[in-house]
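Technical appendix A lists one of the benchmark inputs used to test multi-chain prediction within the project. The record comprises two sequence entries:
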Amino acid sequence: MSGNELHVVTADTITPARKMMGRGLVWGSAAIFALVATLQTLQTTGRADFEFTTWRPTLYAYLFWATCLCISQVVTRGEQGKRTLFVLPAALFVISLTVFPLLFGLAIAFSDWNLSSPTGRTFNGFDNLRQMWHDSFYWNALVNMVWYTLAIIVEYAIAFGLALLLAGQIRARKFFRVAFLLPLMLSPVAVSWMIGKSMLEARFGPISRLARWIGVENPSFFESPWMAKATIMVLDAWTFIPFMMIMLLAGLQAIPKELQEASKVDGASGWNSFWEITFPLMLPVTVTAVLIRIIFKLKLADIVINTTAGGPGGATDTVTSFIFREYRDRSNVGYGTMLAMVYLVAIVIFMTILMKLAARYAKPQT
Amino acid sequence: MSQQIFHDSDADRGFQGKWWASRIAIYSVLILWAVICLFPIYWTLTTSFKMAPDVMKGNMIPWVDFTPKWKGWEAIGLSPKTLMQESTVRAEFMKRFVNSAIIALSSSALAVALGSLAAYGLSRFRFKFGFMKNDDISFFFLSQLILPPVVLALPFLVLYKELALLDTRIGLILLYTLTVLPIVIWIMKDQFTTIPTELEEAAMVDGLGIWGAFFTIILPIAAPGMVAAFILSLVLTWNEYFFAALLTSTHTSTLPVMVASQTGSQGISWWSMAALSFAAILPLIVICVALERYIIKGMAAGAIK
């Protein structure tokens, strides 16, 4: 990575006047932004009326400031500024779309705010946290997330098996690759209808028919809590196995052929050579694939919202679908945001530990 | 017939038998999984041509078990008969379809543009914003992937209400760009690091600026990677449901929202639902079949370092 940097030095003469101009540009536009924002705050607090209907002017002032900031980089810093310009737009974009809403979200999280109640937002300190502590449905959803995450082990095993098959000597490889990839393309909402609502339908869904033909009486996939959970897991696995499979396949194809041949010459059986050669070499890819899969899994919601809506009795609820309903059915913005914030903190801690562990165990092998 | 002189030894014949057994096992697993992957799509497509009795009897094969009818497609105004007529359902469907297309295409394009620039910058120059060095900046971008949508959803809902961006395409485009940006940066960073720096150095010696070198030399080389990133973003944004369900209502809701709202209603008519679902997934099926190698390339880029 460090060997790949550009070390071209270009002579730049930047006059003090030019520097001043650049600074003026940034601070001038910042002043305009501050002015507009203050005016709007004055209006919303009711102290003056400038006939703003929305906060749009502030948004435009912010965009203007951001543009000026980018221009001023080139004005004040010349060539170096042009380089900064590669990263700056994306950084500004991400910061303004995540950091501000997150700070804003924190403010919401510590308030009692129901969109349908006429009182509006009132600060209520840690009441939301206290309510969360006693909300058994939220804890239940968190526990469900643990189960859903554990299902990744099975998904990984299947994906690895399929990747091994696809990497082997087979005919019609392209057909199988496209066929195996297709589920990933389908929208979870469509999948929840196609499989969850129609194929698993208790009376005439084809899978229910198959189950009856095997000998299951009254097949129902969403009635008992564990069955429903398992069904959601299978649906989610169906869409996401291709994702892990492709990553693992790429990893398999990057393994030098000589290594496997050498082990074959040395007389290792297929089983041994898999565990001794292939699997250890695949460890870094495995870590990446599983980590990304966990990240996606923690966002699981669409399928749950559209097939079971969390039922029966919250058995299939994910945190996201739970908060979705908290907002949709009860318009409880303050409490919902607090739940989401707690979830975010939990995820960040969990992922940090996981990445640290992964770095420790995966590195020495490579 | 003369006597056969050369025989395979018994050991070899045993080996052959084993080889055949493993072949058969491999192909049966492959075919089984292909059926698992394809059957739901087949089922949806055929169901959209079924009448109520066919659905209840569980007929599977068109022209053998049942005669295909256009009833499901009529329900969304896309059958040959209704295609020429005015149809409110089709207008509704087309509106959602166009919304989805515009939002998915523009947010993917925006993400690829912003992401490629950032990835190029991060792979070529050394930055220092305050305490943040290159690796920290990369991590900052990638860490957005961890951010669950539900954390952003409610603040955005309130924010967009204040900014009059609720139920607008721009609002969704910005948000979708944010969600796919980390993936784009990841793929593109991998792409740019594989391109040797000598290319730009030569171009800059010849008098091009750094941006000129980027656009004329690097961009064409990195184009396949950009296509891969674009398609992956397209898939994710086309299918996105959560934000669309919360932040849009009548004007800009996307196809997934339409599909979801139809399943919610009781007494669903399977044929029309099937037609709707199939119409919603068809564009991506076409993309998958046509551009499969780009998708695989994009996902593989992240896997191997």
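DSSP finds 13 helices and two strands in chain A. The mean pLDDT of chain A is 84. Comparable benchmark entries are summarised in Table A2.
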